[in-house]
Amino acid sequence: MAKKLTATAKAPPINIGISAKDRAAVASELSKMLADSYTLYMMTHNFHWNVEGPMFNTLHAMFMTQYTEQWTALDDIAERIRALGHYAPGTYADYAKLSSIREPKAVPEATDMIRLLVQGNEAVAKTARTALNQADQANDQPSADLLTQRLDVHEKNAWMLRSLLR
């Protein structure tokens, strides 16, 4: 008779060819990326709701496109952290501690919204570059691929937003 497996069986250790130390280092940088990305998402969504002025339709639609894309990316980043064997940060307190982006205290004018979003996208790009270097050092291609894709998005968003200020 076959032995019955119990529900108390432990999961085997992660063995994906990246050391525990390197997985922790990449997960730490990805956590900062998640915090910056979430903060930028919130700011973009806030500005979508509250933008006013002659560029309302353009900015309202552009902000919605950007925050919708960012929302999907949050899940990808968090799931990569989990795949590396670490918990993803998921509270406002975590994000406030980890994020390099500071949100405005009040609702800014439309052109200031654009400037803040340029700065926010550039901040996320800088955070992604640091995380990408860590992923490259760890030979972590899935994280590097994710971060390269995020760099492309945030650099393009910054360019498009900046173009509105010329």
From TrEMBL:
InterPro entries, sorted: DPS_DNA-bd, DPS_DNA-bd_CS, Ferritin-like, Ferritin-like_SF, Ferritin_DPS_dom
Gene3D superfamilies: 1.20.1260.10
Pfam families for this protein: Ferritin (PF00210)
Residue stretches making up the Ferritin/DPS domain: 29-165
Protein family according to the UniProt entry: Belongs to the Dps family.
Protein name according to UniProt: DNA starvation/stationary phase protection protein
Organism: Orrella daihaiensis
